[in-house]
Please model this.
Amino acid sequence: MAIRQIVTVGDEILREKSKTVTVFDGKLGQLIDDMIETLADAKGAGLAAPQVGVLKRVAVVSTDGETLYELVNPVIVKRSGSQIGAEGCLSVPGKSGYVERPKKLTVEAQDRFGNPVVLKITDPYTSVAFCHEIDHLDGILYTDKVIPDYKPKKKDLE
Ligand code: CO
Model:
């Protein structure tokens, strides 16, 4: 395993659309292992492959430091509810902003071996992290979705 360098805003790779993974080999496993290590080192909640300079539809999410989701070719197939919460991004250091996201999700993806997985996400923070990371795979940054001059309310996610 190795810690990879996280690219930051201004790097055009963050604006590109990632490619569907079709080969489930050791190289993919290595990428995912490196992303997990890089995420832990950066103390983040999620990391998408373009953030380490790889345009593949791969992301890792861990919002509680224990449960780890490895997402290959993730697609949100169902979303429900709405919440507004503060978001930041490892590729946009030192900044945060309020974004509206669904509260619950159903996501179809594959594991590192190509097996299909269906994930029902009910934790609000995890739902935000999934949406944020999947956006990265389409070249979308949370800063594109920030509500300008938003005044946080009590019910919002911190
Ligand atoms: Co991000």
Observations:
- The chain has a mean pLDDT of 96.
- The chain has two helices and seven strands.
- The longest helix spans residues 26-42.
- The beta strands are 46-48, 58-61, 69-80, 83-89, 92-101, 104-110, 116-121.
